[in-house]
């Protein structure tokens, strides 16, 4: 009986949240033309309480997407442009020596831009590994330690980092352990003809777009708590485990993958996929995720958590192809 009442309560919360999530999507759609999959996956990541890595060439609207999300979600948002000379203190903050009215000197902490609810780390792979590590440590721990004192970050706290393709000049690849801190890696491609035409006409006119907040930080946190309460069927749990474990070279699901995969996803990938499928169900107004959710989110959750061997890349094998083969096994 307790389980039935819990399910009824969750269903009532989902039904109450559905109109607000629909309004949220509609408001974002006023500024972002097309890119429905990108918008959906970004919202799923935020509902799951994670961080997003947006990958694409310059000029595809990554910055605009983050700015739009800050407005419609009612979050305090800041943007940091990552450059090779950016230092950890430029993000986290630092201590300064102040002299009080009594003549005594004291250290005072000046918070950096990371003390916000939605941080845009623009072109994160242009900063040095030391600066990247400082931000990613704050993402993982939810706090900053300066001068031996810990300073908690606001809640909710999300990082939406943008990254240019690594083959471009002046970039530093993110280490594997740091990539794992992002719940999803979302690839942004070029818009289709109709969307690019609409964008061209809208962005070169004199019309000023005034977006409005649809929800706020507290409502987002409530939705994130609801995501963790959604029931997950045994078939979905088994599919997540089969997918993640099958992508590891020592337990590869397909015989030839053992020689093609250099390293595979760890347990954090299964946790991320579990939260993501729940969040996708909530975004669609469903009380529980299905195998379709696992299939839809396998690539953005897994592709930055595994790598191919040099021989596999030389033979033309791609991560997208490997993940697609693993997904096919789910039936």
Please describe the topology of this protein.
Elements: H1 2-31, H2 36-47, E1 52-55, H3 62-72, E2 77-81, H4 88-92, E3 93-99, E4 105-111, E5 118-122, H5 129-141, E6 143-146, E7 149-152, E8 158-163, H6 176-179, E9 184-187, H7 193-203, H8 217-229, H9 234-246, H10 257-260, E10 261-263, H11 267-283, H12 291-302, E11 307-308, H13 310-314, H14 319-328
Parallel strand pairs: 1-8, 1-9, 2-5, 5-8
Antiparallel strand pairs: 3-4, 6-7, 10-11
Helix pairs in contact: 1-3, 2-11, 8-11, 9-11, 9-12, 11-12, 12-14
- Assign the structural class, choosing from mainly alpha, mainly beta, alpha/beta, alpha+beta, or little secondary structure: alpha/beta
Mean pLDDT across the residues is 85
Poorly predicted tracts of residues: none
Strand order of the largest sheet: 2-5-8-1-9
- Helix count, DSSP H or I runs of 4 or more residues: 14
**CATH C-level name of the largest domain:** Alpha Beta
CATH topology of the largest domain: Rossmann fold
The total number of structural domains is 2
What is the strand content?
Answer: 15-25%
Q: Describe the largest sheet.
A: 5 strands, parallel
Give me the CATH superfamily of the largest domain.
P-loop containing nucleotide triphosphate hydrolases
- Global geometry: globular
According to DSSP, the number of beta strands is 11
**Taking Cα atoms only, what radius of gyration do you get, to the nearest Å?**
21 Å
Could you explain how this protein is built, in words?
The chain has 331 residues and is an alpha/beta fold. It has 2 domains: 2-229, Rossmann fold (3-Layer(aba) Sandwich), CATH 3.40.50; 232-331, Orthogonal Bundle (Helicase, Ruva Protein, domain 3). It is 48% helix and 15% strand. The protein has 14 helices and 11 strands. It has helices at 2-31, 36-47, 62-72, 88-92, 129-141, 176-179, 193-203, 217-229, 234-246, 257-260, 267-283, 291-302, 310-314, 319-328, and strands at residues 52-55, 77-81, 93-99, 105-111, 118-122, 143-146, 149-152, 158-163, 184-187, 261-263, 307-308. Strands 2-5-8-1-9 form a 5-stranded parallel β-sheet. A hairpin with a 5-residue loop joins β3 (93-99) and β4 (105-111). α2 packs across α11 (267-283). The radius of gyration is 21 Å and the shape is globular. The two termini are 33 Å apart.
């Amino acid at each position: 009986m307790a389980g039935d009442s819990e399910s009824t309560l969750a269903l009532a919360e989902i039904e109450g949240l559905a109109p607000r999530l629909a309004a949220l999507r509609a408001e974002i759609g006023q500024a972002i033309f097309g890119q429905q999959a990108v918008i959906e996956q970004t919202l799923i990541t935020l509902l799951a309480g994670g961080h997003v890595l947006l990958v694409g060439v310059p000029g595809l609207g990554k910055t605009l997407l983050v700015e739009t999300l800050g407005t419609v979600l009612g979050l305090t948002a800041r943007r940091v442009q990552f450059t090779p000379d950016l230092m950890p203190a430029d993000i986290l903050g630092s201590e300064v020596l102040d002299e009080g009215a009594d003549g005594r000197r004291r250290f005072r902490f000046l918070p950096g831009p990371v003390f916000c609810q939605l941080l845009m780390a623009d072109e994160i792979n242009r900063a040095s590994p030391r600066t990247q590590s400082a931000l990613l440590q704050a993402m993982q721990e939810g706090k900053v330690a300066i001068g031996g004192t810990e300073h908690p970050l606001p809640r909710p706290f999300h990082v939406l980092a943008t990254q240019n393709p690594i083959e471009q000049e002046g970039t530093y690849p993110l280490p594997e352990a740091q990539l794992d801190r992002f719940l999803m890696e979302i690839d942004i491609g070029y818009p289709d003809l109709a969307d690019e035409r609409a964008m061209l006409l809208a962005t070169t006119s004199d019309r000023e777009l005034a977006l409005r907040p649809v929800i706020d930080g507290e409502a987002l946190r409530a939705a994130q708590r609801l995501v963790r309460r959604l029931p997950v069927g045994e078939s979905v749990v088994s599919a997540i485990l089969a997918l993640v474990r099958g992508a590891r070279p020592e337990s590869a699901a397909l015989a030839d993958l053992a020689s093609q995969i250099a390293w595979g996803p760890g347990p954090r990938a299964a946790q991320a996929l579990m939260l993501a499928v729940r969040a996708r169900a909530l975004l669609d107004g469903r009380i529980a995720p299905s195998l379709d959710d696992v299939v839809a989110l396998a690539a953005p959750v897994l592709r930055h958590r595994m790598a191919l061997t040099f021989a596999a890349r030389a033979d033309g094998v791609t991560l997208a192809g490997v993940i697609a083969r693993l997904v096919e096994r789910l039936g």
